[in-house]
Design brief:
Blueprint (H helix, E strand, L loop, with lengths): L2 E12 L2 E12 L3 E5 L6 H9 L8 E4 L11 E4 L13 H6 L3 H4 L7 H13 L15 H14 L4 E5 L7 H16 L3 E5 L3 H7 L2 E6 L1 E6 L1 H4 L2 H8 L14
Parallel strand pairs: 3-7, 3-8, 5-6, 6-7
Antiparallel strand pairs: 1-2, 1-4, 8-9
Organism: Exiguobacterium sibiricum (strain DSM 17290 / CCUG 55495 / CIP 109462 / JCM 13490 / 255-15)
Pfam family, one: ABC_tran
GO molecular function, one term: ATP binding
Length: 247
C-alpha cells in the first residue's frame, strides 16, 4: 500500500509552547483527507511542518515516498486566504502561471504551452472569464478558485489546502469540493485543513482528528464519535447540533 504521507515522531514548538507532540501517521494515497480539530490544535502547523516550511523535529517525514525536499515539485500548497496579500498587483492568469514555475528552472519564462495550461486550469475551476482581472478585484470564493487553479497548473500528485472553504460563497465551495473529488478519482491525494464538522463526513474519505497530538485517524464514521470529539474539543455539546455523532 502506497502512502502519500508518512510521519514519525513529529514535534513542533513555538517559544517553548508545544504545537505538535510526537505525531506518527500514515496516510494512504488517492484519498481526500480532512484534518480537523479545535482552533490552535496544530492543523495548519502540521501541513507546514511536513512541507518543511517551519522548523520541526521528526524521526522521519516522507511525502510520496521521498523527502519533502525531493518531493517539492510534486506537492502543491494552497495557504489560508488571510496569509495572502490580495492588494499585490497581479492578474489572475499570472497568479496561475506561478504554479508552472517549479518545472521551469531558474530564469526561464513561461512558454505558450504553459499559458495554455494555465488557461485550461482556470477553465476547470470556472474562472477563465476572469483571466485578465486583477486578483484583488475578485470575491473570496473566486480568489480561492484561482489559487486552486494555480495548484492544478503545478500538476502535483499531493495537494495541501489550508482552510480552503473559509470566506467563500456556497457556489464556490461546491465547485471546489466537486473538483477535489474528481482529482481524487484521478489518483491525486488531497489533504484539507477543515473546521466545519457538519460537512466532514460528506466531504472526506479519511479524517485526521488532532489536538497537538493525534486523537484518531480513519473513516469519518470511526472518527466522529462523541468520546473522540470530546477528547479533541474538550466538550462535544457545542457540536452535537452540527454533526451526527455516534454514541
Amino acid at each position: 500500500m502506497l502512502h502519500a504521507v508518512e510521519v514519525d515522531q513529529l514535534s513542533v514548538s513555538y517559544f517553548e509552547t508545544t504545537a505538535l507532540e510526537r505525531l506518527s501517521v500514515r496516510l494512504t494515497s488517492g484519498q481526500l483527507i480532512g484534518i480537523i480539530g479545535p482552533n490552535g490544535a496544530g492543523k495548519s502547523t502540521f501541513i507546514k511542518a511536513i512541507m518543511g516550511l517551519i522548523p520541526a523535529e521528526a524521526t522521519s517525514i516522507r511525502l510520496l515516498g521521498q523527502s519533502a525536499k525531493q518531493a517539492r515539485t510534486q506537492v502543491a500548497y494552497v495557504p489560508q486566504r488571510s496569509a495572502i496579500d490580495w492588494d499585490f498587483p497581479i492578474r489572475v492568469i499570472d497568479a496561475v502561471l506561478i504554479g508552472c514555475y517549479p518545472q521551469l528552472g531558474l530564469f526561464k519564462r513561461p512558454t505558450k504551452q504553459h499559458r495554455m495550461r494555465a488557461r485550461a486550469c482556470l477553465d476547470r475551476v470556472g474562472m477563465l472569464d476572469y483571466a485578465d482581472r486583477q486578483i484583488g478585484e475578485l470575491s473570496g470564493g473566486q480568489q480561492q478558485r484561482v489559487f486552486l487553479a494555480r495548484a492544478l497548473a503545478q500538476e502535483a500528485d499531493l495537494l495541501l489546502l489550508d482552510e480552503p472553504f473559509v470566506g467563500v460563497d456556497a457556489g464556490s465551495e461546491g465547485v471546489i469540493i466537486d473538483l477535489l473529488r474528481v482529482l481524487r478519482d484521478e489518483g491525486k491525494t488531497i489533504l484539507v485543513v477543515h473546521h466545519d464538522l457538519s460537512k466532514a463526513a460528506d466531504y472526506f474519505d479519511t479524517l485526521l482528528l488532532l489536538n497537538r497530538r493525534i486523537i484518531s485517524v480513519g473513516p469519518p464514521q470511526d472518527v466522529l464519535h462523541a468520546d473522540l470529539i470530546e477528547a479533541a474539543y474538550g466538550n462535544p455539546l457545542a457540536f452535537l447540533q452540527k454533526v451526527e455523532v455516534s454514541s
